[in-house]
Write a structure and sequence with these properties.
The chain has 421 residues and is mainly alpha-helical. Helices cover 76% and strands 4% of the residues. The chain is built from 20 helices and 2 strands. The protein has helices at 3-31, 63-106, 109-115, 118-121, 130-138, 143-155, 157-191, 195-207, 209-212, 216-232, 236-256, 261-274, 280-300, 305-319, 323-333, 341-354, 360-372, 376-387, 394-409, 415-420, and strands at residues 36-43, 49-57. Strands 1-2 form a two-stranded antiparallel ribbon. Strand 1 and strand 2 form a beta hairpin. Helix 14 packs antiparallel against helix 16. The longest helix has 44 residues, at 63-106. The chain is rod-shaped and about 145 Å long.
């Protein structure tokens, strides 16, 4: 039975009992005046005559009065049976609560709200539990009040479940956010570690991609991890696989969140790496993609020294293009890339301005730029600054190899040779 029908039945029964009670009260007044007794009949619930009730007869009563009293006697018996039925009905109500909740959830919520207007007018009762109702009943409240309260809470089950569901979803989001934060802190630490740490970082990120792959802060770190492992891989095939996979992740990352500067930055890096394995046409194409996304990264995050260092490297590489390479680029794309050594120098100096002593390689390229424009004194100063920095990474080792070739060109002795002298 739906809850609306259940309530109508209960309210109707209670109204009927109230009306009959008035008639019984009148009958009791007549009964006190009667002195004689005689057997009488009353109607059972199945409309059959039954005996067993004694009516007091008075000599002063007429036949019609006696007939009225007999009918009232039968009516009293019906009231007694009705009370028994009401008691049985109330005993079944607690068992109906669970079924009513199921029916409400299966039906239209708006109908349930119309059937239970208290849902809207008394929101402060929504969080009361069944145990508190039982306690109130034990404290002196009638069972009817407790059952009415219990029925009211059943009508509000859907709303309580909605609130609980919202709270659960909020807790799940917080838990996911905390888990992601711990994960990113760990891989950031591994990124600064050994080769084994870098491989572990890639393994962790790939294993969690299904859960966090929709998050751009996760994806750009995954691109970075592919770049790290590419640099430390031994075989050409392994390097190429990591570069190709990292570039695909980069495409996904910039499409997911075009406002994430790091996604553009690391996607540009992977495009630059892929130039080592592509045809001449794809190398030039990747060069254009590299520049476009690097410009976007700088636009979104203008104080990131890594972006300016990469842009300086791009400008320096373009400035070194031969006449033939420029012609090929013009034939394929209409306009060849354009940059000068001065453009490269400007970006490397910007790196030093944002982050002094940013890297050993930045000093090396500053020295190259000064050498190419003929400022040899400055070039030697940059070489000395690079030499003063220890080699703690593979990039630093590459920088040292560059220095070993550059210093003699600038008329500088190797530090080891100076010690021998």
């Amino acid at each position: 039975m739906a809850q609306a029908d259940n309530k109508v039945l209960i309210l109707g029964a209670l109204a009927g009992v109230a009306g009959i009670g008035l008639a019984v009260a009148c009958y009791q007044g007549y009964k006190m005046k009667r002195r004689a007794s005689l057997p009488a009949h009353y109607l059972c619930t199945n409309n059959e005559l039954a005996t067993g009730m004694t009516l007091m007869n008075s000599p002063g009563l007429h036949g019609n009065q006696i007939e009225v009293l007999d009918r009232l006697e039968a009516l009293l018996q019906c009231v007694s049976e009705l009370k028994d039925e009401m008691k049985a009905l109330k005993n079944t109500l607690p068992m109906r609560h669970g079924q009513v909740g199921v029916d409400l959830r299966a039906g239209d919520r708006s109908d349930a709200h119309r059937a239970a207007p208290l849902h809207r007018t008394t929101p402060t009762r929504r969080k009361r539990s069944g145990s508190s109702i039982a306690g109130a009943t034990a404290g002196g409240r009638s069972s009817e009040e407790a059952e009415s309260e219990g029925g009211y809470i059943t009508a509000l089950t859907d709303s309580d479940e909605d609130e609980q569901s919202d709270d659960e979803r909020l807790d799940e989001r917080r838990e996911t956010t905390d888990k992601l934060t711990c994960l990113l802190e760990r891989v950031d630490s591994l990124h600064q570690g050994t080769e084994a740490d870098k491989r572990e970082s890639l393994h962790i990120l790939t294993s969690q991609r299904e859960e966090f792959g929709h998050n751009s802060t996760f994806l750009w770190r995954l691109i970075r991890a592919y770049c790290d492992v590419h640099d430390i891989s031994d075989t050409l095939e392994e390097k190429k696989n990591h570069a190709e996979t990292g570039k695909k992740v980069g495409e996904e990352a910039v499409a997911l969140n075009p406002r994430c500067a790091e996604s553009h930055q690391w996607y540009a890096i992977m495009c630059g790496i892929m130039a080592e394995y592509d045809t001449v046409q794809n190398k030039i194409k990747n060069g254009y993609i590299f520049k476009d996304h690097l410009d976007k990264a700088i636009e979104l995050k203008p104080q990131d020294p890594l972006s300016y260092y990469l842009l300086g490297r791009w400008c320096y590489a373009v400035a070194q293009l031969s006449w033939l390479e420029r012609k090929v680029a013009a034939a394929l794309f209409g306009e060849p890339p354009s940059a000068t050594v001065e453009d490269a120098l400007k970006n490397f100096l910007k790196v030093e301005d944002i982050h002094p002593r940013y890297s050993k390689l930045n000093y090396v390229f500053l020295a190259k730029c000064y050498r190419d424009i003929g400022v040899r004194k400055k070039a030697r100063e940059m070489c000395e600054a690079a030499e003063s920095m220890q080699s703690v990474s593979k990039e630093d080792e590459d920088a040292q190899k560059e220095l070993d070739l550059l210093c003699p060109q600038l008329g500088m002795l190797d530090p080891k040779d100076e010690l021998d002298l």
